[in-house]
Amino acid sequence: MQRIESERLILRNFTEQDTDDLYRYAVDPEVGPRAGWKPHETREESLSIVRMFIADDNVWALERKSDHRMIGTLGLHHDKWRNLPDVRMIGYVLAQDCWGQGYMSEAVKRAMRYGFEEMNLRLMSISHYTFNDRSRRVIEKCGFVYEGLLRQTFLRYDGAVFDEAAYSITKNEWLKHQFIV
Asked: Is there a contact between 49 and 31 (Cβ–Cβ < 8 Å)?
């Protein structure tokens, strides 16, 4: 992924030096389950994920400029419901001590700009589990259009099954939204 910046964040490639920061928030029982994954039990588990991010090259490390701490991730993944080559699905996670400070909205907006301007995407999609109101608020702040509810789409590691609220935004909608914000 190309390194990009926003006002308070650097969106950059992962390095193995990010392992401790990832582990710090990945062990939090409030973080992983909201994104559908089990909290990490060991530093080695976090290192394995960092290595996967390095190999896949579709996830940014979110580094806070003020202290250079890696506080989350943001990925531009192939859309699991659309088979178009110029469509990406956004996925993200943020350390709990950074919630409610606007970091993720800032990162998503910057990733949208990169996706539409640099990657020439036609559409970006995003979804959240219906219980995750924080994620819903980020999605709404960024101008995504609600598409609907996908019932019983995800089996979590603990056996819980969740519905997903699906959203998307086209390049033209994003361009119009830029003038409104």
From this structure: no
At 52, phi and psi to the nearest 5?
Answer: -65, -45
* Helices and strands, counts by H and E, the chain: 6, 8
40-61 pLDDT, tens digit each: 999 999 999 999 999 999 999 9
Q: Interhelix angle for 133-141 vs 103-113, to 10°? A: 40
Instruction: Report the alpha-carbon distance of residue 150 to residue 145 in Å, rounded.
Output: 15
Instruction: Return d(Cα 134, Cα 166) in angstroms, integer.
Output: 15
Q: Residue 99: helix, strand or coil by DSSP?
A: coil
Exposure letters 52-89 (e unless 16+ CB within 10 A, then b): ebeeeeebbbbbbeeeebbbbbbbbeebeeeeeeebbb
- Structural domains present in the chain: 4-180 (3.40.630.30)
Residues 6+ apart with CB under 8 A from 152: 161, 162, 163
Q: Are 11 and 111 in contact (CB under 8 A)?
A: yes
Q: Tell me if 60 sits within 8 A of 110, measured CB to CB.
A: no
Cα(76)–Cα(14) distance, integer angstroms: 14
pTM above 0.85, yes or no: yes
DSSP codes joined into one string, 103-152: HHHHHHHHHHHIIIIIS--SEEEEEEETT-HHHHHHHHHTTPEEEEEEEE
